[in-house]
Specification:
Elements (H helix, E strand, L loop, with lengths): L2 E8 L6 H14 L3 E6 L14 H12 L5 E3 L12 H11 L3 E8 H6 L6 H4 L4 E5 L12 E4 L8 H9 L10 H9 L6
Parallel strand pairs: 1-2, 1-4, 2-3, 4-5, 5-6
């Protein structure tokens, strides 16, 4: 029997409540067995500007999701070198776990970008893309996307890093344990 999972990829630099809300809404709307948060190492569509270690991002993700037994971290991309192409990752994941039925969760910014994804025509045969709205983006795509309504919060990791750099509060934007980890480890300070 196939296991229905959702995968939410990202830099999670840091993970925030927007990530958790999206994952929870998609999981319950689609009746998925679990959601895997998949931190990428080198996203091919972004310049590598991250100064936080992969281990710190993993630690923060584990803290962020530990209260939900249906959430887990999928570190497969951190174990590979080079750009984190979703096609390569999904192919490897399906070799390791052939019983997976994968729902790959993307924001509207990535829906617009899908035509530029590496081996997108092969990838759409391997996963069901699940799109969630983001303000100022269009959800129209030439590829099959299952749209899920989620609360629209304008929160981003870059906004959180900026607030920390300016000495502003991030309370309620990230789980309390993540905020404590950031403070205790002096992350994102100017």
């Amino acid at each position: 029997m196939k296991k229905n999972i959702g995968i939410l990829g990202g830099t999670f630099d840091p993970p925030h409540i927007g990530h958790l809300i999206i994952a929870n809404e998609v999981m319950h709307t689609l009746g998925l067995d679990e959601i895997r948060f998949m931190p990428n190492s080198v996203p091919p569509h972004k310049e590598k500007t991250q100064k936080i270690s992969n281990q710190a991002r993993l630690d923060m993700l584990e803290l962020a999701i530990k209260s939900n037994g249906q959430f887990r971290v999928e570190a497969i991309e951190l174990d590979r070198e080079g750009p984190s192409y979703t096609y390569d990752t999904i192919r490897l994941l399906l070799q390791q776990e052939p019983d997976l039925n994968i729902h790959f969760i993307i924001g509207a910014d990535m829906i617009e970008y899908l035509p530029k994804w590496f081996k997108i025509d092969e990838l759409v045969t391997m996963v069901q893309f699940v799109g969630v709205k983001r303000p100022s983006y269009n959800e129209v795509s030439p590829y099959p996307i299952q749209l899920v309504q989620t609360p629209e919060l304008v929160i981003s990791s870059s906004m959180i890093r900026s607030r920390l750099n300016l000495g502003k509060s991030i309370r309620y934007l990230v789980p309390e344990q993540v905020e404590t980890y950031i403070k205790e480890n002096g992350l994102y300070e100017s």
